[in-house]
Design brief:
Distance between the termini: 38 Å
GO molecular function: metal ion binding; oxidoreductase activity, acting on CH-OH group of donors
Order of helices and strands: EEEHEHEHEHEEEEHHHHHHHHHHHHHHHH
GO biological process, one term: phospholipid biosynthetic process
CATH topology of the largest domain: Dehydroquinate synthase-like, alpha domain
Largest sheet: 6 strands, parallel
Number of helices: 20
Mean pLDDT: 93
Protein name: Sn-glycerol-1-phosphate dehydrogenase
Number of domains: 2
Structural class: alpha/beta
CATH class of the largest domain: Mainly Alpha
Low-confidence stretches: none
Bound molecules: zinc ion
CATH superfamily of the largest domain: Dehydroquinate synthase-like - alpha domain
Keywords: Cytoplasm, Lipid biosynthesis, Lipid metabolism, Metal-binding, NAD, NADP, Oxidoreductase, Phospholipid biosynthesis, Phospholipid metabolism
Number of strands: 10
Strand order of the largest sheet: 3-10-7-6-4-5
Strand content: 5-15%
Shape: globular
Length: 439
């Protein structure tokens, strides 16, 4: 293994392309990351040095006040021409990453603007990442809350005609995370950031299941980085709970490292498993019912506890008990799954069916899979053992005053029940939910 793969320091990866032991070539397009008090002051110098004489700042009403105005002043003092796009709220009073917001940012960005600056949390970044990609302009990131691991990633989850889908877009050229700004973030957003990070415990376990049971491509480096990212956070939990500079810094580092680990492999597998599928399912239902959105990381945190309970349950089954259950359980087929998807997903069903049964017919033979699970039961249990106990995950969430139960989150029992049944179809990825229905 080359030295770059032994040194997990973040700066080591920036702007690098290298051949990995996993057989893939990895590339990190982000060139510069600053996490400190006064990071905003450094952005203007970076813009000047990069030769951008005209940039467009994109914010929402709150983040424009909290940071956008100041950034504008700093940039103008460096004689950079600044256009501003303050994204308007929708009829629910929320800023959403939807077609209206995208068109607004396009209209607010003059042709002469050479770069975009995202000033906000996850949603503002998702809008900017998409516009940046489609208009071939680089973007710079100024996170205003440590709430999500999407700052450094490439996928943009967008709501188009009321449906949420993740569109490939681009990563920022540089990130300026100002600790003074993060210290002012609402507590709920700090808790959400930790929730998104704790989800890595179950997403990594799900990826390992895919590797062991289906021979899925697995990158040790990306998995190690993700593990390191979540451990940075839990090792500094008191600091995060007290919102000290060190705590905010470690949480932000964890979130950015998790984003980098997704950039390496070019997909979200290291950082998104069944806990994210559950969260996406709740989000889609709230969207369809025109209810207010919940913070991404808050949903992921609660879902992580639920998935950890399912991993824990695997530890109580001996190999022969597991084999007996596998022999008795129903064998799902494409036909039976399609029926379930049509019942559960309404207008979205055809899209979900296409996701689960791609036209190239890579569908799994459930009988072979069951045999594999029985054969590799020891490995499955080892994966389950690496997931922290649900009580531990709950205690971490409680420490930062985040919601722990679906009830505290505002997910009612019927929605919870439906999601535990059908969220496995959100993505065609092997997870604990897909394992559990065969047992
Ligand atoms: Zn997430
Ligand atoms: Zn790799």
């Amino acid at each position: 293994m080359s030295s770059i793969q032994n040194d997990l320091t973040m700066d080591n990866w920036l702007g690098r392309t290298f051949d990995c032991t996993c057989g893939q070539k990895h590339e990190v397009p982000i060139r510069h990351i600053v996490i400190e008090r006064g990071a905003m002051e450094q952005l203007a110098g970076y813009v000047k040095e990069a030769g951008y004489s005209h940039v467009t700042l994109v914010a929402d009403g709150r983040t424009q006040q909290a940071a956008g105005e100041k950034l504008r002043g700093l940039l103008e003092a460096e004689r950079v021409h600044v256009s501003v796009s303050v994204i308007r709220v929708n009829t629910l009073g929320e800023v959403a990453a939807d077609e209206e917001a995208i068109v607004q940012v396009l209209l607010d960005t003059p042709l002469s603007s050479q770069a975009l600056v995202a000033v906000g949390a996850g949603t503002v970044h998702d809008i900017v990442r998409f516009v940046s990609h489609r208009t071939k302009r680089p973007f710079l990131s100024v996170p205003t809350a440590p709430s999500v691991d999407g700052f450094a990633s490439v996928g943009a989850p967008l709501i188009v005609r009321g449906f949420k889908q993740t569109i490939p877009a681009c990563a920022p050229e540089a990130i300026f995370a100002d600790l003074a700004l993060l210290a002012e973030a609402p507590q709920a957003m700090v808790a959400a950031g930790l929730g998104d990070m704790l989800g890595k415990h179950t997403s990594l376990a799900d990826w390992s299941l895919g590797r062991v049971l289906l021979g899925e491509h697995y990158c040790e480096l990306s998995a190690r980085l993700t593990q390191e990212a979540v451990e940075l956070c839990t090792a500094h939990l008191d600091e995060i709970a007290q919102r000290t500079d060190l705590g905010m810094r470690k949480l932000m580092e964890g979130l950015i490292l998790s984003g980098l680990s997704m950039l390496l492999v070019g997909h979200s597998r290291p950082a998104s498993g069944a806990e994210h599928h559950l969260s996406h399912y709740w989000e889609m239902v709230l969207l369809q019912q025109r209810r207010r959105a919940l913070l991404h990381g808050a949903k992921v945190g609660v879902a992580t506890v639920l998935m950890a309970q399912r991993y824990q349950a695997l530890l109580g089954l001996t190999a022969s008990e597991a084999a007996a259950r596998l022999a008795q359980s129903a064998v799902p087929s494409e036909q039976s799954d399609a029926v379930r998807i049509r019942q559960a997903y309404g207008d979205m069903a055809e899209q979900v069916i296409a996701e689960n049964f791609p036209a190239d017919g890579q569908g799994l033979d459930a009988r072979e899979l069951k045999a594999r699970i029985a054969e590799r039961w020891g490995d499955v249990q080892a994966i389950a053992r690496a997931v922290p106990a649900p009580e531990q995950l709950s205690a971490w969430l409680e420490a930062v005053q985040g919601p722990v139960t679906p009830e505290q989150l505002g997910v009612e029992p019927e929605l919870l029940e439906a999601s535990l049944q059908d969220a496995l179809f959100v993505r065609n990825r092997f997870t604990i939910l897909r394992l559990q229905r065969l047992l």
